[in-house]
Structure formats: structure tokens, C-alpha cells
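Question (not urgent): is this output format expected?
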Amino acid sequence: MTQNQEIAKGLEGVRFTESKLTFINGQEGILTHLGIPIQEWAEQSTFEELSLALLLRRLPIAQELAEFDAELKANREIPEELTQLIRQMPQDANPMQALRTAVSYLGLLDQQSEDITPEARRAISVRLIAQLATIIAAQMRAANGKDIVAPRQDLSHAGNFLYMINGTEPTPEQARLFDIALILHVDHGMNASTFTAIATSSTLSDMYSAMTSAIGALKGPLHGGANEQVMVMLEEVGSPDKAADYINAKLDNKEKIMGVGHRVYKNFDPRSRVLRDYAAMVADKEGKSTNYQILETIEKTVVDRIGDKGIYPNVDFYSGTVYTDLGIEKEYFTPIFALARISGWCASVMEYSEDNRLLRPSSVYTGDTDAHYLNLEDRS
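Got this back:
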């Protein structure tokens, strides 16, 4: 017997809290943080500033930003015990499994990890934002049999990460491009991983448990893994002249096209517009135009065929080719997502914690209502 209740599949349309962090209008393709359009953040700000702004829920003043930047730089080093653990991980381990394990272990090493006061959550957030970059870079190097590169304190967050994965200092253009990519992924409302982090935190669990939960949610291909699948698609297409036929065949067979469509946006994802322009710039400057040309053709084909249904490229569509041009292997695209989103996760947990209520949804029971226990020998 079914209870007389409606079910919001996937929690779609369900509102359980208020937030000042991020606003999305999917019909018009609008995304703002603290009321400021994502395009302005990408053009004028930095990952460090947006991270702090979300933690504060307002634009920081110059002194606050300078102090926050200094805090991040001072906390980039990870404990030696964690470095050793990363070296011992199987080289063929799933990078997100490895990241989830590393963050959980980092919590074991943090003497403040069980403290859930606002002050402690803020301090742990700073360490997590700083150290997640070092963890991921160390994992990338170790998995490829390379020496782990220690972080530097004279580079930006984005520039230091590229230095740690490649062993050489990036150009200012490369560092800025990656900085913009991070900005575009910092926060996106009540997505699956953010919701998961809040759900864990709502039990008054610790920040490391909340972030480990969020990483687990992000690991799924329906959330964080789409940009990796876009690169797989590009490899399958092979050349720009084959792209239209490839996509038309997929559409004819009603197959999903990775990096296209979004649960929220029924217009162009504004983040994809920003990344498209920078992807074009990189392709032109670096002479790596094949992938970009394939993506251009796919986008045109998709928009012509199904754009009137509100299905357009999303942020994952162009991010993969940008990461590839920066020397990042596709297996690490989802950890890079976490590298950016950690700021949004921490900010959302801190915001919700100020008026915390244990998340306890209900379900509609559809099972038997008049059953009785049968002895094992009487069961068929």
C-alpha cells in the first residue's frame, strides 16, 4: 500500500535551507556568487579571493585577502605521514578513491579535527583548501612513478599546483587560465556533493567527514566525471570532419552526449561560455586546435538538433580540453573538480552550521503491510 504523498524524484524542487552563497537561474543561464555574475569573478578575481568571499559571505577587504593568501601559503605542506601513505598507494588506484582516503587520513593527523566550533571549522577549511592541492599533485606524481614536488610559497594557488604536477613553473598565462578554471568550479548551489557534505555535517560530524562524504559523491560519473568522458568522446571522434556524423548518430540513437545538458540549465551554462573563449585562445596559441575544432562542431550540431529543447553544452564540455593543454591527465579531471569545489563545500557547511538542523527526510513506503514471519523450513 502506498502512502498518499508525492515523491520529489532526486529531490528535484525540494528546498531545505536558505543560502547567500550562490544563485542560479537555469532558464536564463545566470550564475552568481554573492550576487556577482560568474563572468565578473572569472574576469576580475582569483580563486583565493572567491574562496574567502564565500567563507565570509561578502567581498573581503585588501588586508583580509592578504592575510588569507598568506594562510593558504603557510598551510600548503602536508604531513610526512600522509606523503608516505600517498607513495604507498597502488599506482593504478582510482584517483578519487585515493583522494577520499588521503583526506580521511589527513583528519586523523589533525589534532583539531574533532572541534566543530565555528573558529575550528574556519581554520580547518583553510588547511583543506590549501592542502587538497598538494595532496592531488602528490598523487599524480606518485601514480606516474615520479618524485613528489614540494609546494612553493611564492606562487599563486593555481600556479603552485601546476608547478607541483609538472615540476616546472608555469607561464603567467597558464597559471591564470587554471585560476579561471578553478573559479568556475568553486560552487554551484545545492548540487549532490554539497548536499552530501551538509547532510554529514548536520549530524554534528567533523569537517573531514563532511569533505570525505562530498568527495565520495563527486566521484560518480553523473556528477564529477563528465569532463573525463568528454575527452574519451574526443578520442573516439578522432578528427573534426567526423564530429558531425558521430553526434548525429548518437542523437538518432537517443544516446547521451557527455558534457551536454544540465539538470539546472535550460540555456547555455554561463561557465561554458567563459571556458569556450579561453579554450579557443589556448588552442590558437599552443597550436592544439584539433580538440577545440571537434568541440566546436559538436556544439553546433547539438544546438542545431536539440537546442530548442533547452539542451546545451555545460561547463564540463570545454574544461577537459583546457586541463589537457595544461598537462593534466583525464583520470585526474574529477580530483581537479574537488580541488576547486572544496571552497564551496566548506563555505556551505559553515553557513548551514550556523542554524543547523539534522537532515532527516522521509520516504514513501511501498512494501507489504500485512506480512508475517515464516520459519526458514516453510519458505519456498
